[in-house]
């Protein structure tokens, strides 16, 4: 067995992050297979994908990346965090787009490409680095699972009231008309 082929505990942090990656890949594949006429399913799937990616990025930034800081070059993690920022920008764009909008499919495609690149980097460079470092993956996995539950509860909570001049959920379209914003039920 090579040092990069160290076994991963099934309940360890790497196994959980790999499972997240697999879920995201499956969602992106499902989106690619959907017919353009399946508007509601496409919208719901993209909302779920955005929620999953946001949750995953938060968990990595709070637990995985700090565990790696002492064992890899900071530039590797800085780049990974920049990739998360880029994905968040695309997610913000998708929150204002409808499946019928011109840039909806293109934005999902760019997000899919960025996610594929990011996942490949993590799985080929960062995961092996953590495994080689001898970090207690199970303890980190337990912390990740607890934090995930906490974040999922936060996502399930109703959003706070918002003060503003326009009713919540409405955006002005390019012609100045009000259009309802896609809202993710929590």
From TrEMBL:
Residues 156-186 are annotated as: Disordered. It holds the Pfam family Hemerythrin. Residues 13-130 form the Hemerythrin-like domain. Residues 168-177 have a biased composition (Low complexity). InterPro entries: Hemerythrin-like (IPR012312). CDD domains: Hr-like. PANTHER family: HHE DOMAIN PROTEIN (AFU_ORTHOLOGUE AFUA_4G00730) (PTHR35585:SF1). This is Hemerythrin domain-containing protein. It comes from Telluria aromaticivorans. The lineage of its organism: Bacteria, Pseudomonadati, Pseudomonadota, Betaproteobacteria, Burkholderiales.
């Amino acid at each position: 067995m090579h040092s990069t082929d160290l076994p991963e505990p099934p309940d360890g942090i790497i196994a959980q992050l790999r499972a997240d990656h697999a879920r995201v890949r499956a969602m992106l594949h499902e989106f690619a297979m959907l017919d353009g006429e399946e508007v509601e399913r496409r919208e719901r799937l993209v909302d779920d994908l955005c929620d999953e990616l946001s949750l995953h990025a938060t968990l990595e930034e709070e637990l995985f990346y700090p565990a790696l800081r002492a064992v890899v070059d900071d530039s590797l993690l800085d780049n990974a965090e920049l990739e998360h920022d880029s994905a968040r920008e695309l997610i913000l764009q998708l929150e204002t787009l409808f499946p019928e909008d011109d840039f909806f499919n293109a934005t999902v495609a760019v997000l899919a490409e960025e996610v594929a690149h990011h996942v490949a980097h993590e799985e080929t460079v960062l995961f092996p680095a953590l495994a080689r470092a001898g970090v207690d993956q199970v303890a980190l996995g337990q912390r990740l699972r607890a934090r995930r539950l906490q974040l999922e509860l936060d996502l399930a909570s109703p959003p706070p009231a918002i003060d503003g001049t326009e009713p919540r959920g409405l955006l002005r379209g390019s012609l100045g008309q009000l259009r309802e914003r896609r809202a993710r039920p929590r």
